[in-house]
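Narrative of accomplishments. A recurring question from our advisory board has been how the design workflow behaves on a single, concrete structure rather than in aggregate. To address it, we present the structure tokens for one chain from the evaluation set, followed by the sequence designed for it. No filtering or post-editing was applied between the two.
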């Protein structure tokens, strides 16, 4: 198994175990600590900071800290919603610049026509909004223990959906180099 994949799964596993052996604030604290450890390890391995993980860490620190300070678990429940909405907003604002933020970030890996980037950007925004909506439904409809399981499993599912959308759109708009 790829060592980076293990690091990606570490916060979710820590969240699940923290909830099993403690309660929701313990789970959030364990996941935040695991995220901090993963960021540090990735920095050591790659010599660069994984900014998406850092932003997730900052969001977790702020919302978990507020939740503990105010004694309200709601802040832990809304972290995925706030994160997804912030990601959608960043993508939407990033779509206004040329080249788009998504193209600047992925352009070295995805060689797609200019018409494909707005399609990809829209798909990613839609998936982020779907993720936020799904979390809001789940946090209201499920018990805390079931929501914890949903939260841990929803990230890999969302990643798979983003990967699938990116793959399908990239295949449609791929630039074919002529010999």
């Amino acid at each position: 198994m790829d060592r980076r994949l293990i690091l990606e799964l570490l916060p979710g596993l820590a969240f699940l175990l923290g909830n099993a052996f403690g309660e929701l604030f313990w789970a959030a604290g364990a996941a935040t600590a695991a995220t901090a450890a993963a960021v540090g390890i990735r920095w050591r391995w790659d010599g660069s900071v994984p900014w998406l993980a850092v932003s997730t860490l900052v969001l977790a620190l702020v919302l978990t800290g507020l939740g503990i300070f105010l004694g309200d678990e709601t802040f832990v429940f809304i972290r995925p919603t706030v994160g997804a909405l912030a990601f959608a907003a960043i993508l939407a604002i990033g779509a206004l610049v040329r080249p788009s933020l998504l193209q600047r970030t992925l352009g070295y890996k995805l060689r797609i026509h200019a018409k494909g980037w707005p399609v990809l950007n829209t798909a990613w925004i839609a998936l982020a909004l779907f993720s936020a909506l799904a979390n809001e439904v789940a946090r209201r409809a499920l018990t805390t223990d079931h929501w914890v399981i949903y939260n841990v499993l929803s990230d890999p599912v969302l990643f798979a959906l983003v990967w699938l959308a990116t793959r399908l759109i990239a295949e449609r708009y791929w630039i074919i180099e002529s010999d």
